[in-house]
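New to this. Please check this record:
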Amino acid sequence: MGLPAYPSAIGIIRLCWITFVIVWLAAAASTKRVVYRESTGERWRYWVVLVIGYFLLVKSSSLPYPFDRLLIPHTKSSALAGVFLCISGLGFAIWARVMLGRNWSGVITLKEGHELVERGPYRFVRHPIYTGMLAMFAGTAIAIGYLGGLLGLLLLFASFWMKLKREEDLMLKQFPEKYAAYQRRVKRIIPFLV
């Protein structure tokens, strides 16, 4: 992943992703006991799309035509937009992870004593970790600028969308009235829109 005119932008974006991984690994050590976990087959439905999207995003400049076609020129503006989105998304995702606390899991689960969190960024969107990650992916795609990266971003969005639909089905079973009311008040992934 390279940005000839603004390599410092790619360095900042890499640092954001490294920070994300470190925070997630550290926080994963203290979660509640699982009482339900989705099957491996269910997980693969969205994971395959996620992996393909990620591959397209990070390898777009070295893929064959048309994936390596530069759609967003490497300018100071695109570099700054990418860095801004990545840093903002990182902050939003970490805020959401802190608010979710020990209820978090990387796969669809119910935890012992599972709580419905509606505070912090959960007041703005029902899936703020995905919102933050998508902002980070969007920032990365903009800074890189290739068609493959933008297609990868669409696949990453599709993967999160598939996963969040299954999570919401589970939350509706666990908190039927409370989650239904929450769905009516708060958008899924993009504040005030979607």
